[in-house]
């Protein structure tokens, strides 16, 4: 049985708590590793060591820190296959999907190569007689990132890239369900030239999370997960005087207008609704066709596509559409919600509740499901299912359709499929949701823009990656200076390169 510990001061160390969590192979249901769960004392010790290491790292010029990011990009590309295989083994994603997980994180690291430009402040010459004023962006010090199981490469990289490039030390607390890839990322950071102690990976559960929130040295906390936990972490972190960005659940709507290309919309819904077994905060889980004719056409286009989906372990080849969900508890919750949809009167058009994969009967596989005639009072509409379940909510008009998305408590992502520019512009301008797609089903912004939801999908003023990330991981210091005139030094004739 593989034993996984923590990454502290540039090396793997065993846990001392005596507590562990099982790491499953979701395809077989077997325990393939045990990961140590840290105590508060272990977490506090890792923070103290990080704080010491951060002093020199924060004083390193941002150009040099950017070079570490540049080296990390090369190493991530070198080890892409190895990272993807480890990710798929613990999470259950297909290999192409796992590579996408790494790639979207890698792109944020690429953006962070330009850390020097992102760290620039402002300057005012002659603000008064002989007085200049300037501002500096400086690192917070030690920060923490608490990351989810569903993107064990992307979300840690989204956090560690800007945080480290800005000169902070980071405590990374990954999900205990799939901890191997975050530990591998830490090793790659060391190989890229990151000094020991600047990145600490502490595995743990709620005890470790609470220790992070209560540790006085930690100045900022980033979190991605469910809304109740996001709200809990945001509330406790800010109550303790920390900066916090916390991203929660989602119920993403895709509106299909009568003028949309139905075949294109159906293809988009298949990938956005069932990719990664629906375990994405940007998955489209609600299709809102406008008009019964549109809804009937969409349903007719979706059913054969769903019935052809290949559900299998990642080892079955690159033509697998999606694999298992992460745990048996996740599978049970998905099936519970599906049953509630039937009990509450929705039409289960594609029913795979009895899905079983030969040879993998103990795995956590859930077949694809399609509901029609879902109403907004049903649990399958109100709750985030986080599984391969697509619900159709029929709307009589554009106003009714946009109202569904706007009235829902979550506001992470949304999309509209239409050929009409006026409708698309109105939708983009009016919708109260953080990320919007126009004929794009999963509108995840690229690394140089910023990622974040509204309403109960996001807590905090600053989003992930892009310029917001450098604002989050730094604070501004403003200097007013005045120098007596007439002080001169001798000339210097050598052009001195930066050390």
TrEMBL record:
Alphabetically ordered keywords of this record: NAD, Oxidoreductase
GO molecular function: methylmalonate-semialdehyde dehydrogenase (acylating, NAD) activity
Entries under PROSITE patterns matching the protein: ALDEHYDE_DEHYDR_CYS
Pfam families in alphabetical order: Aldedh
Broad enzyme group: oxidoreductase
CDD domains (UniProt xref): ALDH_F6_MMSDH
Domain Aldehyde dehydrogenase as annotated: residue spans: 14-479
Domain of life: Bacteria
GO biological process, one term: L-valine catabolic process
InterPro entries linked to this entry: Ald_DH/histidinol_DH, Ald_DH_C, Ald_DH_CS_CYS, Ald_DH_N, Aldehyde_DH_dom, MeMal-semiAld_DH
Transmembrane domains' residue ranges: none
Its EC number(s): 1.2.1.27
Family annotation (SUPFAM superfamilies): ALDH-like (SSF53720)
Protein known as: methylmalonate-semialdehyde dehydrogenase (CoA acylating)
Species of the source: Aliiroseovarius halocynthiae
């Amino acid at each position: 049985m593989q034993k996984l510990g923590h990454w502290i001061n540039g090396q793997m160390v065993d846990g001392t708590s005596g507590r562990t969590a099982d790491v499953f192979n979701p395809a077989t249901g077997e325990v393939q590793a045990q990961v140590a769960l840290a105590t508060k004392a272990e977490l506090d010790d890792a923070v103290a060591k990080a704080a010491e290491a951060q002093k020199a790292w924060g004083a390193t010029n941002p150009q040099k820190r950017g070079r570490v990011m540049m080296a990390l990009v090369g190493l991530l590309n070198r080890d892409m296959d190895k990272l993807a295989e480890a990710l798929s083994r613990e999470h259950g994603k297909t290999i192409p999907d796992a590579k996408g997980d790494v790639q979207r994180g890698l792109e944020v690291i690429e953006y962070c190569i330009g850390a020097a430009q992102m760290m620039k402040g402002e300057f005012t010459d002659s603000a008064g007689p002989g007085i200049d004023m300037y501002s500096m962006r400086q690192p917070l010090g030690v920060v923490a990132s608490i990351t989810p199981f569903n993107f064990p490469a992307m979300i840690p990289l989204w956090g560690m890239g800007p945080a480290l490039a800005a000169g902070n030390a980071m405590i990374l607390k990954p999900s205990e369900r799939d901890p191997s890839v975050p530990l591998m990322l830490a090793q790659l950071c060391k190989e890229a030239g990151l000094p020991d102690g600047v990145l600490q990976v502490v595995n743990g559960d709620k005890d470790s999370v609470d220790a992070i929130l209560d540790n006085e040295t930690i100045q900022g906390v980033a979190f991605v997960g469910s809304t109740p936990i996001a709200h809990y972490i945001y509330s406790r972190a800010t109550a303790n005087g920390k900066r916090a960005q916390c991203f929660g659940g989602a119920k993403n709507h895709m509106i299909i207008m009568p003028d949309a290309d139905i075949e294109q919309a159906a293809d988009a819904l298949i990938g956005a609704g069932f990719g990664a077994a629906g375990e994405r905060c940007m998955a489209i889980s609600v299709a809102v066709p406008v008009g019964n004719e549109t809804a009937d056409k969409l349903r007719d286009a979706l059913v054969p596509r769903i019935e052809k989906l290949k559900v299998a372990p990642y080892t079955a080849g690159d033509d697998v559409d999606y694999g298992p969900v992460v745990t048996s508890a996740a599978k049970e919750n998905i099936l519970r919600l599906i049953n509630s949809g039937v009990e509450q009167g929705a039409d289960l058009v594609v029913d795979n509740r009895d899905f079983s994969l030969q040879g993998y009967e103990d795995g956590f596989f859930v077949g694809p499901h399609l509901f029609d005639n879902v109403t907004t009072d049903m649990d399958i509409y109100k709750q985030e299912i986080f599984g391969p379940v697509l619900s159709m909510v029929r709307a009589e008009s554009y106003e009714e359709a946009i109202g569904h998305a706007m009235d829902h408590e979550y506001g992470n992502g949304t999309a509209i499929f239409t050929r009409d520019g006026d409708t698309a512009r109105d939708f983009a301008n009016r919708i109260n949701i953080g990320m919007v797609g126009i004929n794009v089903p999963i509108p995840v912004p690229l690394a140089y823009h910023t990622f974040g939801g509204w309403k109960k999908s996001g807590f905090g003023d600053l989003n992930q990656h892009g310029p917001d990330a450098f604002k989050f991981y730094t604070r501004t210091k403003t200097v007013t200076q005045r120098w007596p005139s007439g002080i001169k030094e001798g000339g210097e004739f050598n052009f001195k390169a930066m050390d």
